[in-house]
């Protein structure tokens, strides 16, 4: 099977980490949706990565669906709990991580790609507040634990870890480790995992 994505995409990283954790072999195909020759729109009408292309030709998107596919078809510990209440809580964590990532993309995209922005200072502040409230909530709820939910690594950690990793890549001037020492401690444990190391984003823009 093939996973279409870019090395720097935090959503593709979620999918890569889940596939790796669940011991599913895949070929990572670097394909930028902004490239006119991109194959991505053939498989995802939304023109976004990640897309998982199965050997039978079926395409699966987006990152949340790919993680669930990996969790059910792969091996090893579950990333998403079976129990309804636990699953809802882990999905809430995923929404928090993805939402922080969405706000980082909104805040940094124009500057990183040298595009003129029509957004106001108030709009940027609104995105920053989403990031800051999100990080504060994550820090408070993780507390002294090594994982977001319970005592085992799972989807919640994949989503929050992808968001923190994307802060390092896209918003380098933001000192989140200084503002959130609990997240700094947590991220040191998380970023040492093989699945995170293998999918670490490039440091160039
Ligand atoms: N909710 C989607 C978001 C995917 C997404 O926005 N991917 C970006 C790359 S980081 C993309 O493909 N953008 C191209 C575009 O929107 O045209 C997911 O979780 O997979």
Give a quick rundown of the structure:
The chain is α+β, with helices and mostly antiparallel strands and 205 residues long. The chain is 56% helix and 6% strand. The protein is built from nine helices and four strands.
Q: What does this 3D model show about the protein?
A:
By secondary structure, the chain is an alpha+beta fold. 56% of the residues lie in helices and 6% in strands. It is built from nine helices and four strands. The protein has helices at 10-21, 40-43, 63-73, 84-112, 121-142, 155-170, 176-179, 181-191, 194-198, and strands spanning 2-5, 27-30, 51-53, 59-60. The chain has a four-stranded mixed β-sheet with strand order 2-1-3-4. Strand 3 and strand 4 form a beta hairpin. The protein is globular. The two termini are 28 Å apart. The mean pLDDT is 95. The structure holds glutathione. Glutathione binds next to helix 3.
Compute the separation of the termini in Å: 28 Å
Radius of gyration: 17 Å
**In which range does the helix fraction lie?**
55-70%
Question: How much of the sequence is in beta strands?
Answer: 5-15%
Major β-sheet annotation: 4 strands, mixed
- Chain oligomer state: single chain
User: Count of DSSP helices?
Assistant: 9
The shape is globular
Secondary-structure-based class equals alpha+beta
What low-confidence regions span 5 or more consecutive residues with pLDDT below 50? none
Q: Are any ligands bound, and if so which? A: glutathione
**What order do the helices and strands follow?**
EHEHEEHHHHHHH
- With strands numbered from the N-terminus, the spatial order across the biggest sheet is 2-1-3-4
The tally of beta strands, per DSSP, is 4
Mean pLDDT: 95
